[in-house]
């Protein structure tokens, strides 16, 4: 639920973008699918390899059981699922609302001998009630894209947090990587139904006498 003044803040911070449309991602992943079929290139890695390695190091540090039910929200080409499988995780699900993304991920997983990993065409904002019970949900850029939708960031944000509460079991953990939202903004957005767990360190930069992070990575715990 958005808080007083939050709608105005969101309107000031972001303008609608084609990055928030399903059509954009359908076209983008269809091109990547065609390229994969032609030359075997798997496509872009959002935020780079280090963004995945950062989360994997945290999973090791916290000794997250490898049989945990893991959901990759907005799986794209499925490369994070591959890294998780290589790391020993066995109960993996990826979802994306782009049919081309799902087909690309399935093709890449099959090539890697990992066709047993579940990948589903599904809009996270409209997940059925029975789509639940995950120990760990991971989002690397999907929330960023969703909140660029022309229908309004505040509405998409509220639907996202509702879907996330439904997907995660109580005590489950949510890892979000964002380049659009600051730590303070994310703490506000995920203040209902979640408890802040920790922040993962990311590279810092200096510009115009100010210091900041290009990417924010936060961990939240699902609470009753």
Automatic annotation (TrEMBL):
Which controlled-vocabulary keywords does the entry list? Cytoplasm, Methyltransferase, Nucleus, S-adenosyl-L-methionine, Transferase
- Tell me the domain of life: Eukaryota
Role: Protein-lysine methyltransferase that selectively catalyzes the trimethylation of EEF1A at 'Lys-318'.
Catalyzed chemical reaction(s): L-lysyl-[protein] + 3 S-adenosyl-L-methionine = N(6),N(6),N(6)-trimethyl-L-lysyl-[protein] + 3 S-adenosyl-L-homocysteine + 3 H(+)
Q: Which Pfam families match?
A: Methyltransf_31 (PF13847)
Q: Which Gene3D superfamilies match?
A: Vaccinia Virus protein VP39
| Name of the protein this chain belongs to | EEF1A lysine methyltransferase 2
User: What SUPFAM superfamilies does the database record attribute to this sequence?
Assistant: S-adenosyl-L-methionine-dependent methyltransferases
Q: Where is the Methyltransferase domain?
A: 68-194
Residue stretches spanning the membrane: none
Q: Where in the cell is it found?
A: Cytoplasm; Nucleus
What is the similarity comment for this entry? Belongs to the class I-like SAM-binding methyltransferase superfamily. EFM4 family.
According to its UniProt entry, one GO biological process term is:
methylation
Q: Does the keyword Secreted apply?
A: no
UniProt GO MF annotations: protein-lysine N-methyltransferase activity
User: What HAMAP family does the entry give?
Assistant: Methyltr_EFM4
User: EC number(s) in its UniProt entry?
Assistant: 2.1.1.-
**Which Gene Ontology CC terms are recorded?**
cytoplasm; nucleus
């Amino acid at each position: 639920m958005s808080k007083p003044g939050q709608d105005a803040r969101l309107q000031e911070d972001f303008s609608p973008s084609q990055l928030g449309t399903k059509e954009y991602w359908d076209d983008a992943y269809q091109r990547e699918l065609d390229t994969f079929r032609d030359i075997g290139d798997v496509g872009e890695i959002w935020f780079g390899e280090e963004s995945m390695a950062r989360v994997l190091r945290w999973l090791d540090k916290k000794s997250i059981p490898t049989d945990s039910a893991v959901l990759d929200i907005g799986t794209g080409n499925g490369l994070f699922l591959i890294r998780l499988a290589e790391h020993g995780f066995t109960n993996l699900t990826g979802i994306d609302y782009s049919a081309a993304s799902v087909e690309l991920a399935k093709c890449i997983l099959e090539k890697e001998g990992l066709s047993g990993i579940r990948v589903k065409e599904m809009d996270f904002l409209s997940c059925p009630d029975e789509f639940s019970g995950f120990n760990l949900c991971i989002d690397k850029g999907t929330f960023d894209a969703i909140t660029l939708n022309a229908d309004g960031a505040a509405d998409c944000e509220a639907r996202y947090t509702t879907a996330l509460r439904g997907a995660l079991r109580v005590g489950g953990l949510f890892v979000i990587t964002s380049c659009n939202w600051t730590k303070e903004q994310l703490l506000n957005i995920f203040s209902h139904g979640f408890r802040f767990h920790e922040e993962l360190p990311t590279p810092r930069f200096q510009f115009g006498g100010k210091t900041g992070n290009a990417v924010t990575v936060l961990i939240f715990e699902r609470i009753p």
